[in-house]
Amino acid sequence: FKVKKGHQPLKGKHMLITAGPTWEAIDPVRYIANRSSGKQGFAIAAAAAALGAKVTLVAGPVSLRTPDGVDRVDVESAVQMSDAVKNALPADIAVMVAAVADWRPKEYRGEKMKKRGSAPPALVLEENPDLLTNVAAGENRPKLVVGFAAETEDVLDNAKRKRKRKAADWIVANDVSGDVMGGDMNRVQIISEDGVDTLEEMPKMDIAMALVEKMAETLQGEKE
Ligand code: CTP
Ligand code: CA
Predict the structure, then answer these.
(1) Looking at the keywords, is Ligase present (predicted)?
(2) Which of 78, 88, 202, 206 has its CA 20 to 30 A from that of 115?
(3) Residue 131: nearest ligand to its CA?
(4) Pairing between strand 93-96 and 144-151?
(5) Measured between alpha carbons, how far is 14 from 185 in angstroms, rounded to an integer?
(6) pLDDT single digits (tens) 118-136
(7) Does residue 131 line the site of ligand 1, with CB under 6 A?
(8) Ligand 1 pocket test: which of 89, 126, 130, 191 has the largest number of ligand atoms within 8 Å of its C-beta?
(9) Ligand 1 binding pocket includes 170 (Cβ within 6 Å)
(10) H or E stretch at 207
(11) What are the pLDDT digits (tens) for 154-196?
């Protein structure tokens, strides 16, 4: 990222970011996961570091290089991601971009399951912790808590409901019914208590910088 020399509006701030998918193991060779490249979360980490923030990036399994100046913690499952998030607090800003698997297999099979010509096994699932809800409700709440909502329909309504339900300050909504997943372009809307801010379609790197600049302005506004 090229930023104006001396433009460090996040200097002295700690930003916690989750990114990528989580993997929920079924047996040693199989898992359940969400579709997520991690690109948008890693871009936000890079932009925040460029603006002077101390950044902790908790990353699920992705194949991306660590942005300059970013502290990265690698995890696999949602439970591990939840622990890493707790360890990384306190933070001034939390940005939960990870596509956390909603459910995990209730039982982990220590040996590879075999077909043996029998009926397919039934997978019994249980719910994972909700990291965003826990961070927003926890003691030591970051001043700005941001969630993401990837939706395929009723994008704004779903995102507004999510903001309330999870007690997030912002929800960044994107419509993933097109070819956003894994691509380099994105189009987002920021839902806050002030209403909806619609950004035009642009590269994920530019979206990241626009979001992080807006976060810096919001924190600055609160001090006065
Ligand atoms: N999130 C989280 N932990 C979870 C699930 C979601 O931290 N176990 C966060 C995501 O990182 C994202 C936001 O919550 O910032 C919204 O995720 P999403 O999957 O859209 O929300 P859900 O409540 O899981 O709703 P849905 O049924 O639409 O998946
Ligand atoms: Ca979900």
Answers:
(1) yes
(2) 78
(3) 1
(4) parallel
(5) 27
(6) 889 899 999 999 999 999 9
(7) yes
(8) 130
(9) no
(10) helix 204-223
(11) 999 999 999 999 999 999 999 888 777 778 888 999 999 999 9
